[in-house]
Amino acid sequence: MSSAAVTLPVKERFNLPDGMIYLDGNSLGPLPRAVPARLASMVGDEWGGHLIRGWNVDGWMAQPVSVADRIGRLIGAPQGSVVLGDTLSIKVHQALSAALAMRPNRRVVLSDNGNFPTDLYMAEGLIGQLDQGHELRVVDPEAVADAITGEAAAVMLTHVDYRTGRMHDMAAITKLAHEAGAVMIWDLAHSAGAVPVDLAACKAEFAVGCTYKYLNGGPGAPAFIHVRPDIVDDVEPALSGWLGHDAPFAFEPHYRPAAGIERMRVGTPPIIQIAALDEALKVWDDIDMDDVRAASIALCETFIAEVEARCPQLTLASPRDAGMRGSQVSFAFEHGYAAMQALIARDVIGDFRAPDIMRFGFTPLYIDDGDVRTAVDVLAEVLDKRLWDDPAYQARGRVT
Ligand SMILES: *Cc1c(COP(=O)(O)O)cnc(C)c1O
User: Fold this and answer.
1) How many domains does the chain have?
2) Is 206 one of the catalytic residues?
3) Which of 27, 86, 115, 116 to mutate to test the pocket of ligand 1 (most atoms within 8 A of CB)?
4) Do residue 329 and residue 217 come from a single domain?
5) How far from the centroid of its chain's Cα atoms is residue 224's Cα?
6) Range of the domain at 17
7) Residues whose CB is less than 8 angstroms from the CB of residue 336 and which lie 6 or more positions away in sequence, other chains included
8) Model confidence over 167-191: pLDDT tens digits?
9) Which of 340-357 are b and which e, b meaning 16 or more Cβ less than 10 Å from the residue's Cβ?
10) Could you confirm whether 14 is annotated as catalytic?
11) Is residue 247 one of the residues assigned to a domain?
């Protein structure tokens, strides 16, 4: 691969503190430089100046769908098939509850133990609340394909594993789910903006994701949900909030779902966060996801090769085959927590996932080959000199 492919021409559009190498955009994307001015104008002019009129004159009420269309392009979803709102946990609940209602004679929700805990917790909570004898069946990621049977009402998976970066074959698994008569739900938390996704081609019924990771929408940015357009009008929203009603301002006594994706809205949208997200998504306007993928693979391959050559203390915890991996690389290390704290103290920011995973996200919008090499220099020094072996690096914050 030519090194030209490793850099995308938008690094200067991000605010990255001097000297910092930010390998945690898979957890919280950095601040796009255009966002503060957009927020100032949203808050000052729109909220401050227009007040309640902003819902109409500034288009606030339409933004959950209009801004989501920018995400649709990145995940291969048709225009008007994605809506923003709430958090990803809530969107998982919406998708799964709708899926179970679509298969009333089936009782199994199939997932895997590489899924992010909240997805499984939300499934447990929903199953308990429904009290209809559903079973959450959780298998190893490698066993998912064989575990898809005619018992499954829904197959609910996260495309890219948050700990290891292992990536499912979205098209193949969706096909198996459909052949078994199950509804397919993909969580794209670590895929949207990280790897090319083609929802229209794979025909999954539901996809959900968050916007504060690779999409750089900022802490608290709303989640998104996609419903396949040919089924959306048959979906029964379990969270039947007023803004998913067909005529919210008719204030009717009973719920009637809106046509199309609007029915997946619940309540008042987070307009300030949506303004930040809209501005952040503009960075993607001139970006092709295939270029992002090529650059991401080049960065990850360099990182793996350099770490394996210089840091024998670490063990690769991600798939070695780039085609099986998302846009992150993880290494296992017994003292991974302290080592990550030592790295962070030296301005190389990754994160740690229990029990022993050091996780590094590679986001070619603002990480280049030089950053990768510098990060490995620092990592090798931390390990060779046992700089992690310091009580200061043992203390755990609320967020790791
Ligand atoms: C990050 C992430 C979440 C987070 O859910 P929130 O409700 O936004 O806190 C959920 N699922 C997966 C797979 C994730 O990676």
Assistant:
1) 2
2) no
3) 116
4) no
5) 9
6) 11-32+288-393
7) 352, 356, 357, 358
8) 999 999 999 999 999 999 999 999 9
9) bbbbbebebbbbbbeebb
10) no
11) yes
Residues 135 and 120: their CA atoms lie apart, in Å, by 12
* Per-residue model confidence (pLDDT) at position 85: 98
Last residue of a domain, one of 249, 284, 319: 284
- Residue 213 annotated among the catalytic residues of the structure: yes
Q: Which atom of ligand 1 is nearest to the CA of 115?
A: 13
Considering the domain architecture, whether residues 98 and 232 belong to the same structural domain is answered as: yes
Q: What's the confidence (pLDDT) of residue 4?
A: 46
Which of 6-15, 268-277, 291-300 is predicted with the least confidence, judged by mean pLDDT? Answer: 6-15
Residue 223 near ligand 1, beta carbon < 6 Å: yes
Please indicate whether residue 88, judged by its CB atom, sits closer than 6 Å to ligand 1: yes
- Give CA separation, 260 vs 99, 227, 247, 307, in Å: 16, 9, 13, 48
What pLDDT does 399 receive? 84
Helix, strand, or coil (residue 347): coil
Residue 3 has pLDDT above 60, yes or no: no
The answer, yes or no, to whether residue 2 has pLDDT greater than 80, is no
> 6 pLDDT band (50/70/90 cuts)?
low
pLDDT of res. 395 = 86
> Is 186 close to ligand 1, i.e. is its CB under 6 Å away?
no
Q: How far is the CA of 109 from the centre of ligand 1 (A)?
A: 19
Could you tell me the distance, in angstroms and rounded to a whole number, from the CA of residue 267 to the centre of ligand 1?
20
Q: Are residues 309 and 373 in the same domain?
A: yes
Which of 14, 206, 212, 362 is the catalytic position?
212
Same structural domain for residues 264 and 310?
A: no
Give the number of other Cβ atoms within 10 Å of residue 127's Cβ: 18
